[in-house]
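for the recovery benchmark. tokens below, seq after
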């Protein structure tokens, strides 16, 4: 990996206010850093936009010269733009100078482009005589001339930031001051400008300036130089008018400053190592007063800075690159991917953070270079190129194009350009230098030049004219009536009437600087692959060609609209799908065989153009005015027979009881693995057509019931199957019911006497009947299963239950380990105890989970606790053997009567039985009689 970085080999001793340099001079380090194996995460490359990557102009320089380290457009005259390219490690004709560096002029033409070196300086190291002694005043070897190149009008500024100036004769010592040259009036005059050069050792530290590390012109033509090493790496910015530099220059004179020159001064000690002047804003009205800071100081925030009016509001916006920005990957580890920060200017020095663009290439150094491109696609907004010089496959490098809009900058690139050279000993560094916003071929669109100094190349990508196209596709009417035959097609010697509809498509094109005629390829497909019906049958064809596709070459003049009309027809008898729409798709593109424009370029469609249009047509159905069918299909299975010869017939009745026809009505019968389809049981009512198909492991029958199956249709049919592979492969549903009759027993029974020689079942006690019902609900039978019946015959050595008899229904084979009715009593009922199902493997009682319907297969069971039938036993209280004597009863009755008579006598004496007069005293009676007068 290669990355431009400033080393700081300075030791700082703080002794009061004094600061001392070490003896090691500062230098600009362009060495290679070994980072190990790089993880390449490829960007999803976008469709090519208008930068022509197929036919670029490639400029080559001397091997190992780092040709392409810096690039710049140069306006040769009002109608011609060429390219100047820096090669800071190139050898030149200068005497005794090794790798002094050079700048190459590369004129552009449609043919092969040749470059030649510009001799800004043809002298070797100059000698100065002091007090009669000659000494070498400068060191030009390895000075990296051409590391920085900028142009303004007919003037080119080229700098050598590692140029050294010898400051003292008696004790030679060199300061890396840097120097620059100006080429004036199309290489007719060259002047040197080295404002950091001094005659003596500069105690202020400007001798380590490295002037020209960064440089540019202002809009009015002032030269601005950055010197990051001045003043103990505080950095410095120096500016002077190019006219004053030209006027002050005198050949052989070591010019240091010019009239009107301005420069930043040494600041407080706390600003050491701030590298001011390493990067600065150029070609804009913004003055960066306070440095922008971010939390991640190791991200190289500010390594590159650029400005452009991205959102077209009339104010320049700021973009800052941080090519060593790190983010955490999917494994949680930090990965160096790079980032670019966009600050929109809302007012004077009011910068609003708006967007962060983060790279996706690990160690790709996204954001190493940011280049304004101008309005690349002529949409009214300036666009931007950002480099990722070590990204992509084999680290060939990437350049990403981002488009501006009213809200700022799009967050995804519209085009990604990959370098064509893989990394060798030195990475190709494609995109390490970028320059745009110039129209090289004068076709009305700005171009882009990309440097790849690792392979000593520079590549010019020209912008192709952009075509803004709109297309329309119309189908009328949108409903195809199969009953109306308004068109006809030839079928051999026969003309067949068909149902058809009209189809038309139109194209219009416009744009800036387009050729007079644009060629388009138009392709119209009917029922294309995405919507093709099952079986791949095309339902519609073009009337004139009887093909499902129409291809035409269409010529459109810029600003005009061209339309074509045709017809499509319905192939009614050759397809089943009448419900789904017939899709018509139109796809168009620029004709790649069309002629080049006057600049040798083919136009390209705007990347926002919709190139695929779809319409659809419906088939008119027998479903009423709304053309919407609401079928109501019902299926009733009548009978299923399973005979001794292993034949099975499935009889079914299918009905449509809805309001409309049922289109593509089919009956699907899925076959189990044991069964095979043998044929149709024909019915006079319907001719059924069935197909036998297999999909993966599933076999099924598909029977056509009609297309449509009209409303009111009722179909009866039978399907025959054989079952040659019937196996016990299914689970079964088994239920067990347990009942005690009676549910409660009272013991001993009434008038029951123990018989020492019982003859009948009544002699040994009441009847207890236990009923067990085992039901197999299928579909399989039970095999290899033991049913165990356990009865409590005794308790504490005394007899309890007497097994009298076991009766069964069904195919059971019963045995017992105890004698049934060993007294041979006369049987009039049944006696059962508890029924359990016993599994020998589980060694316990089980419930059957899966059985079959044949007796030759093993039952699969699950061990569960036993099932029980409980009969509660209630004991009756026995009569006492001691009775009450009769005389005691009579005596008790008489005693009771005597006691009653005595009680009555006592109550009589007490007057209890005397009756009181109903009306009280005689006076009361007299008062109650009516008077004679009132009676009269």
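predicted aa per position
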């Amino acid at each position: 990996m290669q990355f431009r970085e400033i080393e700081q080999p300075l030791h700082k001793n703080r002794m009061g206010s004094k600061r001392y340099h070490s003896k090691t001079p500062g230098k600009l380090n362009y060495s290679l850093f070994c980072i190990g194996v790089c993880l390449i995460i490829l960007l999803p490359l976008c469709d090519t936009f208008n930068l022509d990557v197929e036919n670029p102009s490639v400029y080559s320089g001397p091997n190992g010269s780092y040709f392409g380290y810096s690039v710049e457009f140069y306006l040769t005259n009002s109608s011609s733009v060429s390219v100047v390219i820096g090669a800071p490690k190139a050898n030149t004709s200068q005497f005794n100078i090794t790798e002094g560096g050079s700048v190459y002029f590369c004129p552009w033409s449609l043919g092969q482009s040749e470059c030649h070196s510009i001799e800004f300086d043809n002298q070797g190291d100059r000698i100065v005589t002091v007090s009669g002694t000659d000494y070498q005043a400068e060191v030009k070897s390895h000075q990296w001339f051409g590391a920085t190149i900028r142009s303004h009008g007919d003037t080119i500024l080229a700098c050598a930031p590692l140029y050294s100036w010898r400051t003292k004769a008696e004790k030679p010592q060199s300061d890396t001051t840097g120097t620059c040259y100006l080429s004036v009036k199309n290489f007719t005059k060259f002047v040197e400008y080295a404002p950091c050069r001094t005659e003596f050792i500069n105690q202020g530290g400007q001798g380590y300036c490295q002037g020209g590390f960064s440089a540019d012109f202002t809009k009015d033509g002032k030269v601005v130089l950055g010197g990051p090493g001045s003043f103990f790496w505080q950095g410095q910015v120096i500016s002077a008018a190019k006219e004053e530099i030209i006027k002050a220059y005198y050949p052989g004179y070591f010019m240091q400053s010019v009239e009107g020159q301005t420069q930043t001064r040494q600041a407080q000690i706390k600003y050491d190592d701030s590298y001011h002047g390493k990067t600065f804003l150029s070609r804009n009205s913004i003055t960066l007063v306070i440095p922008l800071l971010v939390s991640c100081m190791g991200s190289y925030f500010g390594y590159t800075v650029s400005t452009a009016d991205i959102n077209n509001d009339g104010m320049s916006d700021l973009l800052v690159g941080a090519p060593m920005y790190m983010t955490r990957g999917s494994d949680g580890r930090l990965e160096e991917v790079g980032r670019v920060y966009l600050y929109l200017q809302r007012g004077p020095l009011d910068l609003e953070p708006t967007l962060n663009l983060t790279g996706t290439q690990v160690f790709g150094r996204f954001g190493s270079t940011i280049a304004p491109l101008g309005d690349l696609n002529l949409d009214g907004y300036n666009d931007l190129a950002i480099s990722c010089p070590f990204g992509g496959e084999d680290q060939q490098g990437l350049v990403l194009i981002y488009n501006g809009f009213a809200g700022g900058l799009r967050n995804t690139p519209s085009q990604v350009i990959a370098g064509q050279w893989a990394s060798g000993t030195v990475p190709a560094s494609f995109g390490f230098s970028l320059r745009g916003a110039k129209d090289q071929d004068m076709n009305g669109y700005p171009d882009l030049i990309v440097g790849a100094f690792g392979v000593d190349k520079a590549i010019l990508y020209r912008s192709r004219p952009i075509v803004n196209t709109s297309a329309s596709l119309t189908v009328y009417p949108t409903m195809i009536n199969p009953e109306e035959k308004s068109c006809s097609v030839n079928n051999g010697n026969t003309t067949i009437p068909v149902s058809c509809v009209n189809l038309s498509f139109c194209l219009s094109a416009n744009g800036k600087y387009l050729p007079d005629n644009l060629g388009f390829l138009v392709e119209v497909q009917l029922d294309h692959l995405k919507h093709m019906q099952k079986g791949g049958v095309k339902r519609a064809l073009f009337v004139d060609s009887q093909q499902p596709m129409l291809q035409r070459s269409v010529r459109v003049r810029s600003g005009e609209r061209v339309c074509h009309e045709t017809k499509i027809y319905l192939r009614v008898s050759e397809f089943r799908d009448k419900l789904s729409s017939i899709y018509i798709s139109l796809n168009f593109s620029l004709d790649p065989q069309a002629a080049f424009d006057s600049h040798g370029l083919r136009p390209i469609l705007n990347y926002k153009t919709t190139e695929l249009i779809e319409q659809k047509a419906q088939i008119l159905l027998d479903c009423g005015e709304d053309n919407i069918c609401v079928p109501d299909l019902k299926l009733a299975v009548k009978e299923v027979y399973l005979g001794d010869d292993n034949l099975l017939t499935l009889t079914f009745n299918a009905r449509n009881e809805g309001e409309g026809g049922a289109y593509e009505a089919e009956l699907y019968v899925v076959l189990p693995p044991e069964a095979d389809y043998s044929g149709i049981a024909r019915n006079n009512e319907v001719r059924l057509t069935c197909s036998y198909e297999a999909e993966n492991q599933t076999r099924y029958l598909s029977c056509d019931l009609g297309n449509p199956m009209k409303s009111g249709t009722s179909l009866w049919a039978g399907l025959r199957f054989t079952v040659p592979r019937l196996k016990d492969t299914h689970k079964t549903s088994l239920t067990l019911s347990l009942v005690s009759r009676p549910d409660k027993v009272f013991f001993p029974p009434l008038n029951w006497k123990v018989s020492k020689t019982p003859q009948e079942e009544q002699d040994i006690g009441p009847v207890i009947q236990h009923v067990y019902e085992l039901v197999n609900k299928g579909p399989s039978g039970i095999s290899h299963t033991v049913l165990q019946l356990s009865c409590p015959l005794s308790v504490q050595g005394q007899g309890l239950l007497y097994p009298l008899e076991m009766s069964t229904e069904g195919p059971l084979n019963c045995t017992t380990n105890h004698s049934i009715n060993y007294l041979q009593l006369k049987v009039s009922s049944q006696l059962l105890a508890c029924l359990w199902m016993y599994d020998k493997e589980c060694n316990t009682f089980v419930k059957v989970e899966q059985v079959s319907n044949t007796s030759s297969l093993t039952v699969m069971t699950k061990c569960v606790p036993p099932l029980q039938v409980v009969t509660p036993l209630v004991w009756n209280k026995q009569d006492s053997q001691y009775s009450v004597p009769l005389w005691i009863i009579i005596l008790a009755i008489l005693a009771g009567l005597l006691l009653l008579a005595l009680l009555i006598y006592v109550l009589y004496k007490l007057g209890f039985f005397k009756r009181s007069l109903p009306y009280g005293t005689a006076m009361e009676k007299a008062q109650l009689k009516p008077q004679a007068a009132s009676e009269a």
